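Record 1 of the preview.
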Amino acid sequence: MAIVQLPAEGAHPAPRSSLRKIAIEEHVLGPLGEPEEYLEHSIRSGVGRNWAQVAYQRLLDLDSVRLEEMDAAGIDVSVLSLTSPGIEEITDPTTAIGVSKMVNDFLAEQVASHPGRYQALASVPLQDVDAAIAELRRAVETLGLRGVLVNGYVGAGDGGSVSYLDEERFDPFWKALSELRVPLYLHPRAPDKKVQETMYGGHPELIGATWGFAPETATHALRLAYGGVFDRHPGASVILGHMGETLPYFAWRIQRAFEYNPLGKNPAKRLQDYLAENFWITTSGNFSDQALITALLTVGADRILFASDYPFEMATDAARWIEQAPISENDRRKICYKNAEGVFGIA
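->
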């Protein structure tokens, strides 16, 4: 005998279908799209060639498959950015300046040619701080880009010197970001060659997103906090992907251990305070209820932004997860679009 279904004449046929989404870690290669260079970089970053080839094709597409996946996921707007290793691995400052201009012009063209669907984060040549400030201002004030994305440290990472953004020479850049009131997305990049050869020797599977990206990016973020960047520039905003690169989970332990042994550092606030006041966290590539709840308990729903990490993740998986996550409907809307509207000024 068939089960008799109780009538529900007032039920909405698709209760989540109208939930707006703005996705803010969605990558492109743009004019840097040489296939062999990208595949070699990907393999060095701990992925297989077959997977990298599919990701490469998805990176290049901006007119068809990407938009179809956005529609299937209910993503109104994707905030585009140049993927790792980006401008940051270029060693020659003059080359970095020219390439950053080319990338930002490309991004602005994509935004203009896909009205209402794309926004973008600029790439800047931090090899030359003055030039980076000039390009930041051009990108934001002239091209209309919504902030900047930095792929980890500045330098080739091939055994040479690398720079992190807590160094005082970058202070004028942080000042410019604060004056423009735009955020910096601190995006992962594979650890440099020395670390890969020692810590990850014999374990290439751990170099990239499986593990190596998180401690590399989290350490950079901690350098900003304990290095006084936010004390010198309290208006600075930094976005961390992948649900905070492990920091929400480990913040109490980090701060506790630091207080026992500060070793000459004297930040004005606790790590938890910086996380709640100067950092934003995104859901990119970390579609986990447990991770989301930890982030909510650490920074609150007002500091979390939706992202899928396209093309390295499926936007449809990201959307399905956030639509069903065990959180309040008000928090869901903040995360999916309201917070991004405020951070990026997206109507």
